[in-house]
Regulatory protein TetR
Amino acid sequence: MSKRENVTADILKQTIAILKAEGSSGVTMRQVANKTGITLSNLQYYFPDRTKLFQAMCEFFFRQCEKTILSELSTINVNDRASTNGFIKKLLEMLIVDGINDYDHSIFRELWALMLRDKELAETVHRFYKNYANWLVQLISQFTPCPEKVVSLLIPYADGYEIMGADLPLERNAIVEMLSEIISQMTRKK
């Protein structure tokens, strides 16, 4: 990676860490600059304002999610039904039990709150969700004849689970089993 790419990645990682620890109100340009070890003007060279910073962070986060999922996919035999069910179950575990990467979905709760007041950020997040959903449809199409249905179930459930999952009567692992069975039934009906 070039120096610019390294600095950009560090800025985004620090922004995510601050957002996760302190919430959106805790993320200031000055705080990100200090945590990254650069000047405020240097940070503004990369990201002129908070909206641009959050937009880039959102893209960075989705790319990290994709990398993690692709890493899991590399261990799966697409032609083996048990392996396919294993991939869907592993994907559910990543989305619901473990979190898809080190940052978990708490940053999305913060982004959703910010979206209410920032139309430009809202458009960016919606665009990334749409791209992410399309990417998952393409990926999951290797495993199921109805990838649109699977993705339409997975994304809102997984992200919504982060908001209220602790209040549901079933444990996370039981929910993974339930959703895995639902998806398995959906794919058998086609």
